[in-house]
Specification:
By secondary structure, the protein is α/β, with parallel strands linked by helices. It contains eleven helices and 19 strands. Helix 4 packs across helix 6, helix 6 packs parallel to helix 7 and helix 7 packs parallel to helix 8.
Length: 490
Amino acid sequence: MSNVLIRTVGIGKRYYRGLRPTLGSLLVSGAKSILQSPASISKSGSWVRSEDMAFWAVKDVSVELKRGESLGILGYNGSGKSTLMRMMCGVTRPTAGYAEVYGRTVFLGGTGLGMHPELTGRENVFVNGTIMGEKRSEIARKFDEIVGFAGLERFIDTPMKFYSTGMVSRLAFSVAAHITTEVLILDEVLMAGDWKFQMKCVDRIRSIAESDGRTVVVCSHAISHVRRVAKRCILLENGRLILDGPTDDVMDYYESGTGPLVELAAKRREEYGLTPPTSSSVIGGDFPETAKKNPEPQSKHREPDAKQPEPIRQQPAPVPEKQRTEVERPSDNGKPMVLRRIAIAGGGGELHNEFHGWEAIRIRIDYDVNRMVRGGRVQLGVMASNETVVLSASDFETDNDLLHLRLAGAWHCEVEIPPRWLSPGLYRVEVVISNQNEPGLSERQGGVSFRILDSDLLSTFYEETGGRPVLKPLLHWTTTQSDAWAGTNK
């Protein structure tokens, strides 16, 4: 039996811009057309759907997921994420291509989807669970666990119309997360409730995929949550599949336009004739000829033991990237302290931006002091790709005299990040030059980045949890064997 639970082949969905005519308007236009000649009817175009009003929300997307895999779907608003997920689970019928889902599937899209406001929380749990395919006896067995996970024990017999939005979201997610299913598809539900509950949801989804062996597809603009849940991501732009690869690599490109998949994304975008991505991209374009190979669109839901065709895999190979190792700016802007240059180098002084975990990283900062300054400060920040501030430092921490006086002239400083300190990933450097006596004259500059490559320094904790540690320093361990051991080595 194949382990593939979800497969889409050349799937696409076409919509038409504009308002759909009402029944009344159709009757009126029909009555008017009876009084017109056949020639005038054809000229008026009342019964012809204009193709120039068509657009493709999703275009020629082929994805395959096996049992136990977790997939994140990324993209700006309007990129086709929700449409793709709805076609995966059979809610929306594709215009081209087809989707296959093997086994019971639960789809949760939107806040409190399927919850009836006039019913109590208890009644909604049973109604929603039944709609999702669970037996009433099984729902009753899991009821306390569902309500406890949502934290709504005191309000479970209250009509849902009196619930807050967060309470509705928590209960809806809890029901979906406890239903016995092979496939769980979640569309923008990781923002349910407060931050503590969101972390609870993330941990539950990871447990579903890793411990229970279920397939999970998740879409959310909460990037940090997707990073923790999904081990693989796809990126959509204007309905096109741009990237398909490991979560960290796809995230690096989606968040900052950097990473090992930059050249692949540029190639795909050029192939599809897409403009550089923006958060307000307009959906449009022609559908490729490849999608016409499947003229009869359909969504197929089968049991896991059904005979399946050969898998169609998409494994884009990583492509090396080139990032900026230094940035310069004009030095004359009238401020007492002016940043001129930031550069990243290795331990030997050579400029580059890719380092192994055992290498030291030097950051050089050049700046001008245009007049004598008291209270001047040079501060450095290193941010991870998800904008987490990994570390910060100031030059006066090791030389307090710098706070008292800096004479006019050209200055430079270097700071070294020790070997075996940062975990693998992409990092961005930002420098702030300021004066505590003149706070309005501070200056901030970024634009340089570097990458720590994967290495054998990663611990099994990283591999087993799937999370990325913020720091990976080489710590001093003291290990001894107790003399009181009474066992045997045989």
